[in-house]
Design brief:
heterodimer, A: alpha+beta, Butyryl-Coa Dehydrogenase, subunit A, domain 1, Butyryl-CoA Dehydrogenase, subunit A, domain 2, 3 domains, four-stranded mixed sheet, four-stranded antiparallel sheet, B: alpha+beta, 12 helices, globular, binds flavin-adenine dinucleotide
């Protein structure tokens, strides 16, 4: 038995962490927030093999597993890194691995970092306002409000009934409206479909359900990283900021805020490892664990985001230290693809405790 | 990541299951510590290696080589079958491991076997009215007079002192040394002249802990464990053992399952409580917390197995484990409305009134063995490297 990371996994995450700390510091995130350009970051990550991680070796990828991907997601969260990892590096290769029809050519291009894929699965989670997407004879009509990793070449989209299609960004009848969310480290867009022709990836809703579980674990892993960043910054700031002639880190109220964050967050790490592992190796448990992981880590992340901001006093509220980038990242991860209450209802269903 | 225990462990697990199936009827269910059923069950468990497993045969244990996974499997299977894992108590869980580490050969031979068999019950005399969280400020004194220590002072919150045959006790033997260096770890009989025990009723209605007064209690000189003045180090080894056992995740899982069952049976306006969206959401929230903590526990276990570092993960288990358990018991009370109040001889109580009892009991565990606030001091200082607060008095 070994519940822990392998040497290869540690080496992989270390190399990504090193790259991000050097090439994608907060200033770079800020520049993305105004200019929306992350090409250099994605190219650097591609050199490290990140988009190829889950692509099968037969299609030019590395063929690693969901736990490896979750560890990358955690690093991206730790630096609030703008990147199309979820759609391109996770959703597309997993759709192929789990039986969806995806051409090897596209997989190879994705693995090489040359093509980007966005994901629009929101309607399969729950339709809000006028969201609806239907398909008739391969023609897609309707709206998906919150597509993730916008600015892509292709989009994976789920219909209301859980069929999965791949559509090109420039397909006739598809209009893409980029818009802001609170999280400026991610690109989001609304997709309008008017008789768009897509290629069917799979019509079994089980495929979309499985992809959703994987993406939920990735969002939670991103929150783990973001919250760890906020905790680290809190401890560092508290040691250096002085009030009443002493570092505020000597005040017990401040120490206990930090201890609370650590005590809640540390088990989330084990939970992400378990959930990532389950996605590949424990089909009976994977769904339940993914639901609980999405919900629980979101709750812990929310508390850490608040507490960490408070530890920084007024500075935490300003744009100066930029803590809010992580605060908002955690918020995005919480709202997307199922809120904690929705996830807990799913979890109850998964064990026969709810209809 | 490899979560399988391996084929040899699967065999071991089925051995445990076979034992449990064959012996379930002999297991005590709520009988007291001194009951014949408990004593014979304890003996049987040791004979089969399900209690005192790694303690050398020479001292009355089973003598197996330490194997964390085997211990884990035993704990899992006993919890699943809801069968007693034998006697607990501070003698077995704290004193025995300490004696094995720092006791003399004579002490090991004298104390371990009868303790394991339940023939020698112990209490832990650490806390005093003036020394709780700040335990090292304790004042009960022991002065050497010829071949005997003469003990004077008072202990408080001493669990099971009224039942115990012996006490392991922290006393100040070097009044002029700095406060952590003047303490010794003393063992003595509870029927020694000069000991007075006054029970304290706790919030559950039981009188499980006591005040214990010492007036010129004479203790043979060689009943010190470790060196004279080293009692603080000896005691800290024990606290480590205690903390590991307080947030038992298997027990929490069993209680969670019992709560889910309760919610399927109990109704409000004819609707099962599990179908009540708010209550169900609260149950699921706790399940998420519980799962995270279980995986954290697996990580700690694996780190011990593979010599990996998981110190922060380990440091948080007492705090998180006891708080979670308290919240879980509390949810059962909330969902039952007025029925959650039933206690004592009230026939309306559910599950023998265990929800109210455990709800209070776990508040005791949140306080005992290092309060949650003390845990947070430890986490922030040792886990996160934050500075200690400035001391007001540097005396002592
Ligand atoms: C059920 C139960 C069983 C027990 N059994 C035993 C036993 O068998 N033998 C034994 O020796 N003792 C036993 N104890 C005693 C237990 O170890 C103490 O109660 C505990 O260590 C706290 O000490 P105290 O009660 O003096 O509280 P105090 O130390 O007075 O604490 C009061 C409050 O102050 C806070 N506080 C104190 N110091 C700090 C600090 N530095 N930073 C922040 N907050 C602080 C505490 O967290 C708490 O909230 C038991 C207690 C309980 C509840």
């Amino acid at each position: 038995m070994e519940f822990g990371l392998s040497r290869e996994q540690t080496l992989l995450t270390d190399s990504v962490a090193r790259f991000l700390s050097k090439e994608a510091p907060l200033d770079r995130v800020r520049r993305f927030a105004t200019e929306g350009d992350d090409r250099d970051i994605w190219a650097g990550l591609a050199e490290l093999g990140v988009p190829a991680l889950l692509v099968p070796e037969s299609a030019g990828g590395v063929g690693l597993g969901c736990l490896d991907a979750a560890l990358i997601a955690e690093q991206l969260g730790y630096r609030a890194t703008p990147s199309p990892f979820l759609g391109t590096g996770v959703a597309l290769p997993l759709a192929a691995r789990w039986g969806g029809r995806i051409g090897d050519e596209l997989l190879a291009a994705v693995a090489a970092g040359e093509r980007r894929v966005g994901v629009a699965l929101a309607n399969a989670v729950g339709r809000r306002a006028d969201a609806t997407l239907s398909s008739a004879g391969g023609r897609l009509d309707g709206i998906v409000h919150f597509a993730m990793d916008a600015g892509a070449d292709d989009y994976l989209v789920a219909t209301d009934t859980g069929a999965l299609y791949l559509v090109a960004a420039d397909a006739p009848g598809l209009s893409i409206k980029a818009f802001d969310t609170i999280d400026r480290s991610r690109r989001t867009a609304e997709l309008h479909f008017a008789g768009v022709t897509g290629s069917l990836v799979g019509d079994d809703p089980a495929l979309v359900a499985r992809l959703l579980d994987a993406l939920r674990v990735m969002l939670a892993a991103d929150t783990l990283g973001a919250a760890q960043q906020m905790l680290d910054q809190s401890v560092a700031y508290a040691k250096q900021r002085e009030q009443f002639n002493r570092p505020i880190a000597t005040f017990q109220a401040v120490k206990h805020m930090c201890a609370d964050m650590a005590a809640a967050l540390e088990p989330c790490r084990a939970m992400i490892w378990y959930a990532g592992h389950a996605l590949d190796h424990m089909p009976d448990e994977a769904h339940l664990v993914a639901c609980h992981t999405k919900a629980h880590v979101a709750e812990v992340g929310k508390a850490v985001a608040k507490t960490s901001t408070e530890v920084h006093g007024g500075m935490g509220f300003t744009d100066l230290v930029g803590l809010h980038y992580w605060f908002k990242r955690v918020g995005y991860n919480r709202q997307m693809l199922g809120t904690p209450e929705m996830m807990r209802l799913e979890a109850a269903r998964a064990q026969g405790l709810a209809a | 990541m490899d979560l399988s225990y391996g084929p040899e462990y699967d065999t071991f697990r089925s051995e445990v299951q076979t034992f449990l199936a064959a012996n379930a009827s002999a297991a005590p269910r709520g009988e007291g510590l001194r009951s014949p059923k408990m004593l014979s069950w304890q003996k049987r468990l040791i004979e089969h290696g399900y209690a005192a497993r790694t303690i050398p045969k020479a001292y009355g244990g089973y003598g197996a080589a330490p194997d964390i996974l085997q211990s884990r499997i035993i704990a899992e299977e006993f919890a699943r079958a809801q069968i007693s894992q034998g006697m607990g108590g501070q003698g077995i869980s704290m004193l025995v491991p300490t004696l094995l580490e720092v006791g003399t050969e004579a002490q090991k031979e004298q104390f371990i076997r009868p303790t394991l068999l339940g023939e020698m019950l112990w209490c832990q005399g650490y806390s005093e009215p003036g020394a709780g969280s700040d335990l090292a400020s304790l004042r009960t004194s022991a002065v050497l007079d010829g071949d005997e220590w003469v003990v004077n002072g008072q202990k408080i919150w001493t669990s099971t002192a009224h039942l115990a045959d012996w006490i392991f006790c922290l006393v100040r033997t070097e009044p002029n040394a700095p406060k952590h260096k003047g303490i010794s770890f003393l063992l003595f009989r509870m029927d020694t002249p000069g000991i007075e025990i006054r029970p304290l009723v706790d919030m559950t209605g039981n009188a499980n802990f006591n005040e214990v007064f010492f007036t010129d209690v004479r203790v043979p000189k060689d009943q010190v464990v470790g060196r004279r003045g080293d009692g603080w180090l000896v005691a800290n080894a024990i606290l480590g053992h205690e903390r590991d056992s307080l947030g038992n995740p298997d027990a929490t899982l069993a209680r969670f399952n019992a709560l889910a069952e309760l919610m399927k049976i109990e109704t409000l306006n004819g609707q099962r409580l599990i179908d009540h969206p708010v209550y169900r959401d609260r149950l699921m929230t706790l399940q998420g917390r519980m799962m995270a903590l279980r995986y954290n526990d697996l990580r700690v276990l694996s780190a011990r197995l593979n010599q990996a570092d998981a110190s922060l993960a380990r440091m948080i288990t007492k705090l998180e484990g006891t708080e979670l358990r308290h919240a879980l018991e509390g949810l059962a009370i909330d969902i039952m409305g007025e029925f959650g109040l039933a206690y004592g001889d009230n026939p309306l109580k559910r599950d023998h009134g265990s929800w109210q009892y455990q709800y209070m009991y776990f508040l005791g565990l949140i306080i005992g063995g290092g309060t949650s606030q003390i845990q947070k001091n430890i986490i922030s200082e040792r886990g996160l490297g934050m500075p200690k607060e400035p001391k007001l008095d540097r005396a002592g």
